[in-house]
Amino acid sequence: MWAATTASQSSRPIPFLESAAEAPLSTAVSCAAGPVTTPGRWYADGMTPYLIAFAISATLTGGLLWAVGRWTGLALPVPDIVLLALLCSGLALLPRVGWVLGMLIMCLVLLRTTEAGVWPETVLMVAGSGIIWVIAYTAVIAPTF
Predict the structure, then answer these.
(1) 18: which residues sit within 8 A by CB, 6+ positions away?
(2) pTM (2 decimals)?
(3) Which of 86, 92, 114, 122 is deepest in the core (most CB within 10 A)?
(4) Quick check: helix, strand or coil at residue 44?
């Protein structure tokens, strides 16, 4: 069996199923391959991968909206792009229907508030954002499970 101890208190064993608030800053795990140090409290709550994926997808979605808007000649104000990217990337975090809801809301907001046509502006923005969300969440969140 593996034995886990804190870096500062090497003689006191730590149970593996402890709450995030009681987690040490770092944990040394001894196994057959040798000692391994695992991350501490900042990762123990499980929210860090979601925050990283949200930041990546919001940034890339905002960049995609800006780039497609420039390419098609559509005037999208930067604050609107930022708000739309943050809203839709946040909705994409919801389980099961989040990314569909995010894509639907992005499509409706773009069609109602701009002079964007369905093709190519709205389709490229929504499809590109969906691809970005899938890649970001698969690359960052899936390895944590």
Answers:
(1) none
(2) 0.64
(3) 92
(4) helix
Tokens of 100: 């569909």
8 A C-beta contact, residue 88 and residue 105 = yes
Domain boundaries, the chain: 3-44, 48-144
Residue 3 structure tokens = 């034995």
Return the bridge partners of 112, or none. none
Mean pLDDT: which of 4-13, 46-55, 84-93, 111-120 is highest? 84-93
Q: Any bridge partners for residue 28, and if so which?
A: 5, 37
Q: Note whether 52 and 140 are within 8 A (CB).
A: yes
Q: What is the pLDDT of residues 31-58, one digit of tens each?
A: 555 554 555 444 556 778 888 889 999 9
